[in-house]
Structure prediction request, 122 residues.
Amino acid sequence: MGDVLQGSVRGWRGVATCPNRHRVGVQFTLPDYGDAPALYQCAKCATLLIVHPDAETYVGPPWDEKRQHEACPSCSEPLEDAWLYPDHFRCVECGERGSFVAPDRYPPDDESEVIGGWDAYG
Prediction:
């Protein structure tokens, strides 16, 4: 992903608990007049990757195919093991893999924030 650019999307913050009961801050996106950008996390270093559905469709190839041949821009590990985030996340305290279910209702707009990460199709 040598020429990948850092990017950002609008989202919200939540709190999850890892298997070792550490409380972990996570970020999530929700659809807004279409599909929401998907977030993936490197299984090794926890770097976030942003996958815009339009880029998958119009730039291609689909993310599941593209990531088989890409490496994390932060740690150079293969991205084939990257997981959908925050459905799964790496605990910053113990490194264990936890899970989070995003709310199905929108939090207030004034609670939204910018989520930074690497644009997978940049």
About this structure: The longest strand covers residues 6-17. The beta strands are 6-17, 23-28, 38-41, 48-51, 83-85, 88-90, 97-99, 113-119.
